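#lab-general

N.A. 3:47 PM
ok so I finally got the sequence cleaned up, no stray characters, all 188 residues accounted for. can someone with queue access submit it? mine expired

B.Y. 3:52 PM
send it over

N.A. 3:53 PM
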Amino acid sequence: MDDPTPGSENSAEKTAANSTRTETPQPAAGGDDAFDQRTFRRAVGQFATGVTVVTTLFEDQPKGLTVNSFTSVSLAPPLVLWNLGEGSDSHRAFMESEAFALHILHAGQEGLAKRFATRGADKFGETSWRSGPGGLPLLDNCLISLECQVEHRYPGGDHAIIVGRVNAIHHGEPGDPLIFHGGSFLTR
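B.Y. 4:20 PM
back already:
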């Protein structure tokens, strides 16, 4: 899932109501123990994640989207990865750009996460940001921003897996991370 937005299908209330129900995969033609995408999405949504915004510069315009499929891969060399949905309105930009910035959001940035998860929104118009040394759009006030060079792109079903080498780390103010779980942002 690369655009975490709370919605009626994944609301905390529905998740709680369905948490005691066991869903048994039904065999499908050509497969063993098949299940639908909604069931799978609900299942993997039980894994709590941090929330990031990934940005790039494409055709002289800043582009970005909210991502919760981020992880570190290696310390030497410093590598991270994230997943890009084929249906994303930023798909072409990230598939053709050779660099990106990944921003780890703090607990007070739910609005920013929702803005960058909204298809067609003016994501940068009301967002405080600056151009980094390499020209990448860097969002202000995040916990951490990582400037990365694309190392690899791999196909992964209906997503692309993008691996980047971290070239620069920008530290923001310390704080609690924004967390996404069960289709909702978690607040204290």
